[in-house]
Specification:
This protein is an alpha+beta fold and 129 residues long. The chain contains six helices and five strands, in the order ααβααββαββα. The protein has a three-stranded antiparallel sheet with strand order 1-3-2. The chain has a two-stranded antiparallel ribbon with strand order 4-5.
Length: 129
């Protein structure tokens, strides 16, 4: 499976964030999720197929760990889109051409992704009825 397809699912993104902390077993990951262990195992299979996660046998269990080297296509896309400090991107609101993207420019987006990962059932913004 393509890395971008694997990252498209919120549950898989949460699993990756959890694995970024330290390697874990499927049981440990399922305990942190609102999904059954078989559902988490299916998500882990997708993450393994996309090379985002490695599985190592430890006795009778598998220990899953993050493999950040598979994020190369994501990094390349972000660099191409202007996430690097020395690149520029055309602003859709500006007729002046290109505006530099500075480090930290995508911090708000990262915050929203993390917030969505913590609050899976909520779709409304705070203060909006």
């Amino acid at each position: 499976m393509d890395v971008f397809e694997a990252l498209a699912d919120a549950t898989r993104r949460r699993l990756l964030l959890t694995l970024a902390e330290r390697p874990r077993t499927a049981g440990e990951l399922a305990a942190n999720e609102a999904h059954s262990r078989p559902a988490v195992s299916r998500h882990l299979r997708v993450l393994r197929e996309s090379a985002l996660v490695r599985a190592e046998e430890a006795g009778r269990t598998r220990v899953y760990s993050l493999d950040p080297s598979a994020l190369g296509p994501v990094r390349e896309l972000l660099e191409h889109l202007g996430a690097g400090p020395s690149t520029a991107v055309r602003s859709p609101r500006s007729s002046r051409g290109f505006a530099p993207i500075r480090p930290g420019h995508f911090d708000a987006l990262e915050l929203e992704v993390r917030r969505a990962a913590r609050e899976p059932g909520e779709t409304q913004r705070e203060g909006i009825a």
